[in-house]
Amino acid sequence: MKRLFLQEVVARDGFQNEKPFIDTEDKIALINDLSHCGYAKIEVTSFTSPKAIPALRDAEAVMAGIQRQPGVEYTALVPNVRGAERALGCCLDEANLVMSVSDPHNRANLRMTREQSFAQLKEVIGVIGQASIAVNVSLSTAFGCPMQGDVRLDEVLAWIERFAEQGVRGISLCDTTGMAYPTQVQALAQQVRDRFPSLQLTLHFHNTRGMALANTVAALQAGVDRFDASLGGLGGCPYAPGASGNVCMEDLVHMLDLMGHHTGIDLDRVLAASARLPGLVGHDTPSQLLKAGRRLDLHPFPQQAHALARQVSDTPLERAQ
Fold first, then answer.
1. N or C: which end of the chain has fewer CB within 10 A?
2. Which residues span the domain enclosing 129?
3. pLDDT tens-place string over residues 135-163
4. CATH number of the domain where residue 163 is located
5. Rounded to whole angstroms, how far apart are CA atoms 74 and 32?
């Protein structure tokens, strides 16, 4: 099977939702460990205003402190021109821009209409274009909005086209609040691949309703080869109450490996990194693999079962005597 490209978002999408501030050195150490796991891309931080997201107020320090590995792209969220100016001095490989294809969600999340967001991001693309930094645009609520409901397919395609005309390298279709379902995913992904074959297409799933892995399989069937995921399944969206966060990276890798896909990911290293997360964030994570182990992680036969087996085998002999 062809190579799949997995992209880690825990240091940005995951940590921005955590209440305690994670020390800069701890972030750097984790990203350095993740850099040896085989990822195609790691989203390191966000150049959003520190007042808006205090959890990532150390963006420049983290970018300066990480040890970069050849073959790994280091990306960060860049929300506006001020963020772009900050990012230019940090040797980014890619700037990740975000807006929602749902107007109610964009107003609630970014305090702007979609047209206002597009105008702002167009300016960001102009600033980023001054350096050799690739641009990816993440389109939130591409599979549905909790305030609007379904988003029409033609609307999603129209926004992709407008950004493609600006010369962006990639588009991420984001299931921001976990509303996607497999047949919908396959249909949209296929349409995007057919109409925009030159764009680097990424699927970004949340596991809010437990369908992230099923949606991944549907995207694979449509030929998608790039996926975001978050170590431990951290992350989420404030407009999806009770959400468990992004699809869990280790659970995703485990499934893809079993299916015979080539991910290039060292699952042992990923699990070791994920095991450190509860100590950093102060709570358990949604990772199923950390709880249950891999499919063929075998366990010793229970001692009490040995004793019961002896009792059962001795019973006929006792009766014969």
1. C
2. 5-320
3. 999 999 999 999 999 999 999 999 999 99
4. 3.20.20.70
5. 11
